[in-house]
Amino acid sequence: MAINTQLTALLRIRYPILLAAMDLVADARLTLAVSAAGGFGILGGGYGNADWLKRELALLVEARRSTPRPFGVGFITWSLAKQPQLLDQTLAAKPDAVWLAFGDPAPFADKIKAAGAKLICQVQTVPMAKDAVTKGADIIVAQGTEAAGHGVSCGSMTLVPAVVDAVGHKVPVVMAGGVGDGRGLAAALMLGAQGVVLGTRFYASEEAAGDPNAKARIVAASGEDTLRSVIFDVSRENLWPAPYTGRCLINDHARRWMGREMELMRCMSEERDAFVTAKQRGDFDIAPVIAGEVVGLIHDVAPAKEIVERMMAEAERLVGGAQVEAGKKAAAV
């Protein structure tokens, strides 16, 4: 059976699967691969590297000339406040959607929608979801604490249905955090979501711009091997406001400073140089691999197309089976 939702209709895609806008990891190659597979690829603009964004947008525009496919571009919203020209640069490429996370979308919403793009807003609480909808969000991404990178403490299992109850009658809600296979997609649909966002699962794809050693660590890890903390933010002198923390794989650096975060803050400058050097040389005993709890469900580095197809086959079987069982029960009453 086909899984068609409000999300697939709105974005004109075959499957209700979105690529998370992972900073630099979700480059043009991965974005195109996810869209070609029937999902919705989203370029990871992140903190706003202007040169990188210019290069990757040019690749997306060039590819669309021969094979038109929908795509989006995502930013940490605070970066647009510092570099508003990045949004103009993005909208000139005519994306189908712009994803904003971790900041107030209001200053940018009208410009995005006037350009004909859908506004996707990532939230971590019900009040944030309600606020985003009032400010023009067309799609809400409800991000649970299981997700990689920055987030807060609400788990997907309770956050998603609460957000659906609050705003799902107005805009489609998409589940992010803890989804890595068809079971996760089927569960998201049962919770009322219209689709899912995949970050860590697509990080461990052949097309992702991540270091091969980082991908190997994701495949080897279990869910208990991740940690939500402020350690990697302090280490790079990029502190986020409370209540945000970042989830990544536990490594030697995290073990060294776990429980000693205040001490780490006091020697932040000294640690920063070693941290930056480690990141440059791909030393993941110090530099973080940003990954979510779903690592425990990832067992290979596969092409994006294969990831999507496996997920959809499993989800369609599960959702179809649930509908059959519901029909049997109704007939027996």
Summarize the structure.
With 333 residues, this protein is α/β, with parallel strands linked by helices.
Could you describe the 3D structure shown?
Helix 2 runs parallel beside helix 3 (50-66) and helix 9 (182-190) packs across helix 16. The chain is 47% helix and 15% strand. It has helices spanning 6-11, 28-36, 50-66, 77-82, 85-92, 106-114, 126-134, 156-167, 182-190, 200-203, 212-220, 231-235, 252-257, 261-266, 268-281, 304-332, and strands spanning 17-19, 41-46, 71-76, 97-101, 118-123, 139-143, 149-151, 173-176, 195-198, 226-229, 245-249. It has 16 helices and eleven strands. An eight-stranded parallel beta sheet has the order 1-9-8-6-5-4-3-2. It has a three-stranded antiparallel beta sheet with strand order 7-11-10. The protein folds into two domains: 6-210, Aldolase class I (TIM Barrel, Alpha-Beta Barrel); 212-293, no CATH class. By secondary structure, the chain is an alpha/beta fold. The longest helix is centred in the last third of the chain and has 29 residues, at 304-332.
What CATH calls the topology of the largest domain is TIM Barrel
Number of strands: 11
Structural class: alpha/beta
Q: Roughly what fraction of the amino acids lie in strands?
A: 15-25%
Morphology call: globular
Unreliable spans are: none
Rg measurement, Å: 19 Å
Number of domain modules: 2
Quick one: CATH class of the largest domain?
Answer: Alpha Beta
What percentage of residues falls in helices of 4 or more residues? 40-55%
